[in-house]
Design goal:
The protein is α+β, with helices and mostly antiparallel strands. Helix content is 31%, strand content 17%.
């Protein structure tokens, strides 16, 4: 569904603008889901372990240096901001990258049917750039969704679409890592237990929810 101006205003009124520095551990594996955040600037790396090193530096992978050209040919880099994707793929704990206009906790909210209650992250999120994001606290957003069916329907569509895209991308990265022998074969079967499989029709269009933070909360 689509949101009208009134619904956008309702979401805007309960939103908060936040920022994090490059290298910050945004969420750690085991943390409880307490908010929904939309990344508006920068990137976050999704990893199985929080090593505080966004692109990883595994000594076992040094042997791959001689295969640099081969690695480059395997990478399908969609835009210039991921020109350093090779460095992420060298980390065997790397799962995915979150980009601008993506909801960071989309899989968790979809898995919880937009009502997370005690749900915890099975992966960690590291800021690999200086990041800015819009945040909605769990309590305020759940109450807003309860009172506004249009917002609930729109978020379900957006978060479901982004979760499905994230799953497909993580599988793509896993295949590349497998070809590069970055991971034991036993780990290839389930590339990302955190992502939830969401069935979407091919004609389903992505809905971009762009919300300006409430002025009173901008400096919190």
């Amino acid at each position: 569904g689509k949101l009208n101006r009134v619904d956008f205003k309702k979401l805007s009124d309960i939103s908060i603008k936040r920022s994090e520095k490059k290298g910050t551990l945004f969420k750690a594996k085991g943390d409880e889901v307490t908010s929904l955040c939309c990344l508006v600037k920068g990137r976050m790396s999704v990893v199985r372990e929080s090593s505080q090193n966004g692109n990883g530096d595994n000594s076992q992978l040094k042997r791959l240096k001689s295969f640099h050209d081969g690695i480059k040919s395997l990478l399908d880099i969609e835009n210039t901001q991921d020109s350093d994707l090779e460095e992420f793929l060298r980390n065997p704990d790397f799962v995915n990258l979150c980009h601008e206009n993506q909801f960071i906790e989309a899989p968790q909210w979809i898995a919880a049917d937009l009502r997370p209650d005690g749900d915890r992250f099975t992966v960690s999120f590291l800021c690999v750039d200086d990041c800015e994001y819009i945040k909605w606290t769990k309590e305020s957003l759940i109450e807003c969704i309860r009172q506004n069916p249009n917002i609930s329907n729109a978020l379900t569509g957006v978060l479901g679409y982004q979760t499905a895209r994230a799953l497909l991308k993580s599988r793509e990265y896993t295949k590349i890592q497998a070809e590069l022998s970055l991971r034991p074969p036993t780990e290839i079967v389930s590339p990302n237990v955190n992502q939830q499989i969401v069935e979407t029709e091919e004609k389903h269009e992505q809905i971009h929810v762009r919300v300006l933070p409430h002025e009173d909360d901008a400096n919190e």
